[in-house]
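Why run this: before we spend reagent on co-expression, it is cheaper to look at a predicted model of the complex and decide which construct boundaries make sense. The entries below are exactly what would go into the expression plan.
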Amino acid sequence: MSIQFKTIRELREMLDEKAISSEELTNETHKLAEDLKYLNCFVTMNKDASIEKSKLIDQADNNKSVLSGIPLAQKDLFCTEGLRTTCSSKILSNFIPPYTATAVLKLESAGSITIGKTNMDEFAMGSSNETSYFGNVHNPWKKGYVPGGSSGGSAAAVAAGIVPAATGTDTGGSIRQPAAHCGITGIKPTYGRVSRWGMIAFASSLDQAGPLARSAEDCAILLNEMSGYDSKDTTSLDIESTDLLHTINQPIKGLKIGIVKEFSLGDLDSEVQNRFEDSKKLYETLGAEFVEISLPNISASVPTYYSIAPAECSSNLSRFDGVRFGYRADNTGDLNDLYIKSRSEGFGDEVKRRILIGTYALSAGYYDAYYKKAQQVRRLIKNDFELAFETIDLIMTPTSPGTAFAFGSKGAQNPIELYLEDLFTISSNLAGLPAISIPHGKVNSMPAGLQLIGNFLREDQILNAAHIFQQNSAFHFDKPSMEEF
Amino acid sequence: MDQETVRTICYLARLQIDEDKAQKIESDLETIIEMIGGLQAFDTENIQPLYSPLEKTAFMHEDIENSDNQKEKFLQNAAASNEDYFLVPRVVE
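The model came back. Tokens follow.
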């Protein structure tokens, strides 16, 4: 019985009915990963340890949790004890973490099985997975096309049906945009809901971990386990845990959805607009009401992000110096030379570019003009959202201005072209709000995503709206044929 | 963004840019900085910076030792170490 493209729910049933054992499921998953190796989804496999764990799960008593024996893939930015963690960078290509990230530990404690570590943009800096030291990931929907980024390996592994779900991280859209480009579902939770401990930091005030899966329901299953207070992360929220599955099936009659007038959707590709209008109509038939809202400072999102994120990145990535862990250059002179050579040989071009922007923005004489200014504008953006959410329940936008594109076709001449991929996703990171992307049809035969942004800690509402959409549509069942590979 | 500024930033970031890529990096930085410069058009008078979406202060906890010494485990990832220390080129003659 094939396990490809199965959801967590379906695999759970197969396991419970003993149609398959956990060990068989794990072996089958590894076989699939091997058969689809050409997609380049994985950087490192966890074969022996995963099979070992699956045997223990098979031997354990019944009464298993929903994730028990379910294979998952982890973005290669979560530290995993004893399992190489590279951030898809040469500088960490030999790094074996001495501990496991809280989010992964929680999933593993719930019985899930880590199959391997997924490819990504180097240090999560990118929107196309083209900055990985380990090569591009192919979009399962079209050879030679990007899967989106930075969680491109995770998105492609789920879209290709290798694993039912995977972890990702989202600093400016890195879960939602690849989910959209690969035709799957992905949610960035509220900042602080999921512990960042053990996640290799890119921009600490924006990074947040979340799941990518084949449905909103499966995302809720993973997020239920990943969430929760962690004393090891000072930005972890100490809040009562809620069961996101409990409210996922509620009727959405009367739900007020905001459409942002400043996003000027009329300027987008007409097919992107058509999909958006179709989804709007579906929600209307389900009883939702649409309201035009204004976020007057939203046009500042991209420049604000590209001041703050590089600044935080330049600070966070200063730890990679070739001394305590990671790559160290050969033939170095003094200590300063060791730092410079190790970092220069270890980091790729995009990472260097962002470190340099951040260093500039934080340097004497420019701090107020760039970094402080951006943080002030960030507050304006957050205030706009707060005001909007006084009259609406959630906000709907396309996830991305377009669909997946061919390798090398964007950003080569002007990096800003690629930065604009995150036009609709960045603002929820700046404000710390939860947001989900769900597939809502095709644009020029490639998947397109619909984004729902929720109010602070209202993952329940966006998951509910996403699930009801999926109960009344079939876009999330679409599968890539992968025949051309 | 002149060459001198780029050289200074590179030094501060402990990065070296390959000769053949220097011009491209310079023009990319120029483009990005120009985009960020667009923020000056926004009125932020009397607006406090928002450094984190949570704005919570770090919590205090009891100073209780709760982890083991894992020196060997941590030294394993270093390119050069002895039994006790990370090793680097000699700093003091």
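Chain B touches chain A through 50 residues (CB under 8 Å). Residues 1-41 of chain B form one domain. Bring this page to Monday's planning discussion.
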